[in-house]
Amino acid sequence: MFAVQYTYANKEKNPYGYWNGFGLIINIKDCEENICGVIEHIFVSEGKDPIKILDENNQDKPLRSRTLIGSNILYDFSKRDEKGVYTGRIYNPEDGKSYKSKIRVLDSGNLEVKGCITLVCRKTGEWLPLRVELNEDGKRVASLANPLAIF
Q: N or C terminus: fewer CB in 10 A for the chain?
């Protein structure tokens, strides 16, 4: 029997909850006065342990030995939206750099993620909302909150 831990249906058009994007599961939540997105899981090939994937490209050398799981990929996002757009910073583990970012929930329920350099913001992806449940063993199980297609 499954017990629902978190369900995110995007009815309120806010970014809180679990998302699938960039090969990750991200939990967007309150972090002190701001909103952050924490990496909860990394999809890897069979035989690899996601817990052992380190932040080896981080510009801050002492952080290169930390695991990516548990790190913030989104941080310093304002809790107040401006017309449905939340602004903050996004960390790119591939180059170890952080960028200005904007996120917003689309009418489809997906989360639009933009990275910004100077005044130019470009869409970098759409994250899919997830439903996360606890199974009988107490492990979290994620599934898409919205089906990709019905036919």
A: C
Of the candidates 4, 5, 1, 22, the residue with the CA atom closest to the CA atom of residue 103: 22
Please tell me the distance from the alpha carbon of residue 148 to that of residue 76, in angstroms, as a whole number: 31
> How far is Cα of residue 4 from the mean position of the Cα atoms in its chain?
20
pLDDT digits (tens, 9 = 90+) for 87-124: 999 999 999 999 999 999 999 999 999 988 876 777 78
Distance (Å, whole) CA 75 – CA 71 = 10
- The pTM (predicted TM-score) of the whole model is 0.85
Our CA dihedral for 114, 17, 150, 85, rounded to 10 degrees, sits at -30
**Residue ranges of domains in the chain, CATH in brackets:** 3-144 (2.40.128.520)
Tens of pLDDT, residue by residue over 7-17, are 454 556 889 99
How many secondary structure helices (H) and strands (E) does the chain include? Answer: 0, 10
**Unique residue bearing structure tokens 């970098």:** 124
- Based on the number of CB atoms within 10 Å of its own CB, is 140 exposed (0-12), middle (13-18) or buried (19 or more)? middle
Contact assessment for residue 100 and residue 114, using Cβ atoms and an 8 Å cutoff: no
